[in-house]
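YM 10:42: RRM domain-containing protein sequence, as discussed on the call
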Amino acid sequence: RRPIQETNKLRILNLPRNVTSEELKDNLIQFGEVDCNVVKDKRAGIDLNIGFATFTIPAQAANARNALNGRNIFGEDRAIRIIFARTQEDEKAKLHIQQLPPSITSQKLRLLFEKYGVKNLWILNSRNINRPSQYQSKFQQGKFAFIVLNDESQIENAINEMNNVDIDGWKMSVEKQMPKEEIELKRREKKAQQARQQADYKRQQANQQRQYIQTKGVDVQIYEAGNYA
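YM 10:58: structure's back
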C-alpha cells in the first residue's frame, strides 16, 4: 500500500443529502480556520455527497480526520468518511504507468524515472493477479504504478522519453494521470445525468400513455382517478 501523505486538505465522503458548506464548516472550525465546499451538480442542484475542507496547516486537517472519520455528525444514520486530499501540485505532476513486468520493483522504477525528479511512487498488482495465468492476457499479468514528480514541467519529458520503453520484454505505457477528485466528480455527475435522463424517459412514457388513452376516447381524468386513487 502506498503511504498516506498528510496535507492541509480533506475530502469528506458520504455526506447526507442537502448538507451545506456552512454546516460542514460549523463541524470542522473547532480544529482550526477552514474553508469548506460541498460539491453539487450545477445543472440539477443535486447533492453529490462530497465535501472538501482546506485548513491552514496539515496538523489541523489530521486532527479533524482523527476525530471525525467514521462518525455520524449530522444527525442521520450515516457515517462520514474523511481522507486526505492530494495537493493540486501533486495531482498536476502525477504519472500513470501501465504494462510493467511482474518483476518490477520500486527501486528499479525509481531509477528509471530518477532524472525527472521523483517525489513519490507506488506499484500495484493487476486486479486480475489472483486469476490463473492461463486465463489472463499478458497485460493482465503485469503491474501498474503511479509516480508523483517534483516538478509538473517534467511530465511531458517523462511521457515523451519513457512511453513504450522496453522493460524485460514489456513495453511500458506512460501517461498523465487525471486527478482522482476530477475522476470521482465526473463519475458522480454522469450518475446524476443518467438519473435525469431516466426521469425524462418516464415522463415521456406517461405522456405517450395519456395520448393513447385520449385516442381511445377514454376520459383521462377519470382514468387517472381510478388508477391513482
